[in-house]
């Protein structure tokens, strides 16, 4: 049973992530509204660009460090919790950035300080006790993104939040925990394999009878939504924040 | 080649200077240092109070092993006699079998018989050096009179097991039979009849080792 | 039939994705293996605790590898075994051929050994006029079909039973059947003679116990027992990393291995070999030879992927990997497929030939989750990608693109301007907010998916407006 109690309005820093910023800003606005609904005041650090994960995953560590240094500087100039509406970006900030700066003690320390402040969106909202009074009859297929469930070990929170919405039914589907095939640049460099993985995931989701697909990672959502459109499927695709925002309105 | 030995050992020493070997976390390190052999599983097993024999029978039957539980030595002997009646028997030496089962297999081929003859036996009869309750396994230590071929060549393997052979876990066996294992060339744990799932993962029982395993569990 | 390795992963993966038979075979098997593992894991108290212990033991072995090997060798010799050290695969083959020649061996019966695939041992023996036969059912069929294994534990997971039936019918002149019981019976009948006639048995080793020189083999079929009991010479070929410190450690690894590999608590036969036959034994080899092989393992030990030497070859990572599930084992182009193969193959054969492998992963981490030794496979894949960038040629567009990205992403105003341009360019190609054909490098995306057009205004812009109107109002 989620408890709704907000002692004080807490200021949180929002790290929107580049995909939210450039491609689906509506998800970002929904994040802001949900955070305000759980008693937070949202601040946006000035000058954020990217966490550096694309370069890191591609093996370009020097470039990744350059970008990460900038991000750490911007975030380091702020205080308090940093909410990240993306499992993969959050995992990058929490685990990978420290690893990137393994050979630079000062930068690694700065990275560790930022890491300890970061919370993935659903993790944070669940810690705050969930969103009060939402209602949205729907059959929801929840896709747990890999960095979220395995990197950050955030596994129950998204389902708890969906369960807190009156009328929303979480619909399980085959091989629900398997990777959707996005994997960042993997989706382009290994496009065929990415598409094969996507097909398996979408077939399972369509077979489940869900009318909504919800996830905490925009990368996965863009990939799966693009595939659903190709198939002509009528399943609505939303970031968890958009779902919760719609339910509360 | 001693050259290769020196080269490899030298390379290892140099490699270790730059090797990225993750430090094992505290819990792991402590767990590793603990040289008391009984792990949580074995302790839990003991604490459960389930008699070893019951657990062994349960596990063995789940593997497809046929188990006869006999309450007297005579009954165990009779059971064996019935099972091997009319068959060509290959057997461990008489003095290695409990409950005077040696008398029952009196005319059996011994493990020292020519291999071609052994290969045509219908059934192999052994005792065991341990019966592991947790997994339903039979421990067989090789030695004079305890030929490995007996439990390997014939299509059917019968093991006569005593209550006192029963142990909770393989770890317990390693501890308590340490010396016997050290003297022997081979110790094999048999956990059910031979099988393969190589073709489409569908189970086929009876490949190269015996396709049928029977245990006569005496008092 | 897998093709030559260099630079061919993309092509082999493409071929695999179009192979209907492979799909059927993989679908029939990989999900099952995962389920069986889950059930078996639940049957062990404190599975994660045992994994932690196993990891600690393996990391300890690696840290003390030189001393561990010396001690292991001492124990083996005290037990009456001969110990040989092989720097390369070719050395190992030469040593084994010499042993065979010296002892007058004409026929070798092999139980499963991935290391012998690494060294191409069979070819070397045959060249020396020595007959060699695989006795593991899957490997036997691979040998008959002149194919290569595609999975560490289940070598013919890429073949349907119909295909197996056809191979046996063609090569053994037996009636065609697709019934697995019948096919196994054919193999049993053929191989029985081989076991009885072979002069040398060749095996791998799942574990070598440092404290007493025990060699442990786990098998299901019984061929492992056959080849290490009946022939007069037994040769065990093992990688230098396959050590565990003590019998207590062996016990823990045995709890993990079969559960992780096939979902069994234990394989049918767990064979612990302590030496050649003892005085008074009625059977058992007269000579036991252990060949310790490096073949590139010390190279891996020297760097970021040292940890992979803790692998116990259970195959759980293959079964969990969605990429392996999609393309099967041959796509990886060498002996070890799947996540472990993506690290070991560049390590053993060179990154320049196999630079594609570490990249062929979405880094989902399912492998790390199921690994009984908790090996951090994603970390090692990332490390290899970094090495690939430093040492091998990269596509110009990618290198240039990421360098530019780094320059731009450190300058917020420039970043905003640059992304505005990209957004505008993409929106120009969009209809109803969607792009059906993306340009350049991104065309791989739209080959299979629609691409959502970027927004007209970024989140940052919308946020600023919202803040401004709130302060006004």
User: In CATH terms, what is the fold-level topology of chain B?
Assistant: Rossmann fold
First and last CA, distance of chain B: 54 Å
Query: Widest sheet of chain A: strand order?
Result: 2-1-3-4
The number of helical elements of chain B comes to 9
Beta-strand fraction estimate of chain B? 15-25%
General description of the model:
The complex is a heterotrimer of chains A (249), B (219) and C (473). Chain A has helices at 18-22, 25-37, 53-57, 61-76, 87-100, 105-117, 121-127, 146-151, 157-163, 186-189, 191-208, 218-231, 240-248; strands spanning 10-14, 40-43, 82-84, 118-120, 135-143, 166-170, 212-215, 236-239. By secondary structure, chain A is α/β, with parallel strands linked by helices. The longest helix of chain A has 18 residues, at 191-208. The model of chain A has no long low-confidence stretch (mean pLDDT 95). Chain B is α/β, with parallel strands linked by helices. Helix content of chain B is 36%, strand content 20%. In chain B, 51% of the residues are buried. Chain C has 23 helices and twelve strands. Chain C has helices at 9-17, 20-42, 47-63, 65-78, 89-102, 114-119, 121-127, 137-145, 161-172, 180-197, 223-229, 247-261, 297-301, 316-320, 322-327, 338-349, 356-359, 366-370, 377-391, 396-408, 412-428, 443-446, 459-472, and strands at 82-86, 107-110, 131-134, 200-203, 207-209, 214-219, 233-239, 243-244, 269-273, 287-293, 434-435, 451-452. In chain C, the strands form three sheets. A six-stranded parallel sheet of chain C has the order 1-10-7-4-2-3, sandwiched between helices. Chain C has a four-stranded mixed sheet with strand order 8-5-6-9. Residues 1-6 of chain C have low confidence and may be disordered. Classes of the chains: A alpha/beta (249), B alpha/beta (219), C alpha/beta (473). At the B-C interface, α1, α2, α3, α8 and α9 of B face α2, α3, α4, β1 and α8 of C.
Brief descriptors of the model:
heterotrimer, B: 219 residues, alpha/beta, Rossmann fold, six-stranded parallel beta sheet, four-stranded mixed beta sheet, 9 helices, C: 473 residues
């Amino acid at each position: 049973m989620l408890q709704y109690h907000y002692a004080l309005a807490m200021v949180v820093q929002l790290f929107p992530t580049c995909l939210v910023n450039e491609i689906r800003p509506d998800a970002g606005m929904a994040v802001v509204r949900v955070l305000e609904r759980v008693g937070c005041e949202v601040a946006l650090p000035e000058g954020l660009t990217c966490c550096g994960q694309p370069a890191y995953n591609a093996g370009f560590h020097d470039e990744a460090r350059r970008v990460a240094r900038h991000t750490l500087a911007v975030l380091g100039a702020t205080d308090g919790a940093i909410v990240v509406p993306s499992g993969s970006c959050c995992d990058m900030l929490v685990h990978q950035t420290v690893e990137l700066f393994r050979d630079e003690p000062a930068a690694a320390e700065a990275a560790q300080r930022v890491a300890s402040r970061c919370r993935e969106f659903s993790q944070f909202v669940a810690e705050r006790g969930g969103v009060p009074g939402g209602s949205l009859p729907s059959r929801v297929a929840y896709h747990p993104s890999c960095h979220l469930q395995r990197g950050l070990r955030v596994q129950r929170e998204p389902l708890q939040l969906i369960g807190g919405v009156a009328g929303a039914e979480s619909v399980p589907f085959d091989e629900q925990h398997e990777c959707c095939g996005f994997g960042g640049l993997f989706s382009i460099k290994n496009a065929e394999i990415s598409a094969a993985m996507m097909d398996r995931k979408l077939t399972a989701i369509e077979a489940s009878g869900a009318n909504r697909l919800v996830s905490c990672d925009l990368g996965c959502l863009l990939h799966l939504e693009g595939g659903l459109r190709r198939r002509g499927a009528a399943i609505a695709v939303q970031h968890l924040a958009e779902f919760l925002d719609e339910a509360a309105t | 080649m001693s050259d290769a030995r020196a080269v490899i050992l030298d390379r290892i020493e140099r490699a270790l200077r730059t090797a990225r070997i993750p430090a094992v976390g505290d819990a792991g390190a402590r767990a590793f240092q603990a040289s008391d052999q009984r792990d949580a599983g074995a302790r839990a097993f003991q604490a459960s109070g389930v008699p070893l024999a019951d657990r062994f029978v349960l596990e063995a039957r789940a593997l497809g092993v046929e188990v006869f539980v006999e309450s007297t030595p005579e009954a165990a002997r009779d059971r064996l006699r019935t099972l091997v009646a009319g068959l060509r028997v290959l057997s461990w030496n008489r003095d290695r079998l409990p409950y005077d089962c040696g008398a029952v297999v009196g005319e059996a081929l011994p493990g020292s018989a020519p291999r071609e003859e052994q290969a045509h036996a219908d059934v192999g009869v052994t005792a065991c050096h341990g019966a592991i309750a947790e997994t339903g396994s039979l421990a067989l230590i090789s030695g004079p009179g305890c030929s490995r071929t007996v439990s390997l060549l014939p299509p059917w393997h019968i093991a006569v097991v005593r209550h006192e052979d029963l142990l909770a876990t393989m770890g317990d066996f390693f501890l308590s039979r340490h010396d016997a294992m050290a003297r022997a060339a081979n110790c094999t744990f048999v956990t059910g009849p031979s099988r393969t799932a190589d073709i489409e993962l569908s189970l086929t029982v009876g490949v190269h080792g015996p396709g049928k395993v029977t245990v006569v569990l005496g008092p | 039939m897998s093709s030559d390795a260099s630079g061919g992963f993309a092509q082999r993966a493409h071929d695999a994705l179009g192979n209907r038979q492979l799909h059927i075979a993989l679908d029939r098997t990989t999900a099952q293996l995962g389920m069986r593992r889950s059930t078996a894991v639940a049957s062990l108290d404190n599975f994660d605790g045992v994994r932690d212990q196993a990891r600690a033991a393996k990391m300890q072995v690696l840290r003390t590898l030189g001393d561990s090997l010396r001690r292991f060798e001492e124990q083996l010799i005290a037990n009456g075994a001969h110990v040989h050290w092989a720097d390369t695969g070719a050395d190992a083959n030469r040593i084994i051929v010499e042993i065979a020649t010296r002892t007058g061996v004409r026929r070798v019966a092999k139980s499963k050994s991935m290391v012998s695939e690494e060294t191409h041992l069979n070819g070397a023996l045959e060249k020396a006029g020595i007959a060699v036969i695989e006795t593991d059912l899957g490997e036997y069929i691979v040998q008959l079909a002149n194919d290569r294994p595609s999975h560490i534990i289940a070598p013919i997971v890429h073949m349907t039973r119909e295909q197996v039936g056809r191979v046996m019918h063609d090569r053994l002149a037996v009636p065609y059947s697709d019934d697995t019981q019948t096919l196994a019976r054919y193999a049993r009948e053929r191989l029985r003679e081989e076991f009885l006639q072979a002069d040398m048995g060749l095996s791998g080793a799942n574990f070598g116990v440092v404290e007493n020189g025990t060699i442990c083999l786990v098998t299901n079929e019984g061929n492992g027992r056959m080849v290490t009991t009946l022939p007069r010479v037994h040769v065990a070929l093992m990688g230098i990393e396959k050590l565990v410190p003590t019998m207590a450690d062996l016990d823990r690894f045995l709890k993990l291995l079969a559960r992780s590999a096939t979902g069994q608590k234990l394989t049918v036969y767990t064979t612990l070999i302590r030496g050649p036959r003892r005085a008074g034994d009625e059977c058992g080899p007269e000579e036991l030879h252990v060949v310790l092989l490096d073949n590139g393992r010390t190279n891996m030990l020297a760097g970021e992927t040292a940890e992979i030497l803790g692998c116990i070859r259970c195959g759980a990572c293959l079964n969990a990997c969605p990429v392996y599930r999609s393309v099967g084992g041959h796509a990886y182009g060498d002996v070890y497929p799947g996540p472990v193969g993506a690290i070991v193959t560049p390590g053993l054969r060179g990154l320049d030939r196999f630079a594609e492998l570490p990249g062929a992963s979405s880094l989902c981490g399912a492998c790390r989750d199921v690994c009984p030794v908790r090996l951090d496979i994603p970390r090692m894949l990332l490390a290899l990608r970094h090495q690939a960038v430093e040492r091998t040629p990269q596509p110009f567009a990618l290198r240039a693109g990421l360098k530019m990205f780094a320059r731009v992403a450190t300058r917020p105003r420039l970043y905003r301007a640059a992304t505005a341009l990209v957004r505008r360019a993409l929106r120009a190609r969009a209809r109803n907010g969607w792009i059906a054909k993306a340009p350049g490098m991104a065309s791989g995306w739209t080959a299979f998916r629609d691409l959502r057009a970027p927004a007209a205004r970024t989140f940052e812009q919308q946020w600023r407006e919202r803040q401004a109107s709130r302060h006004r109002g």
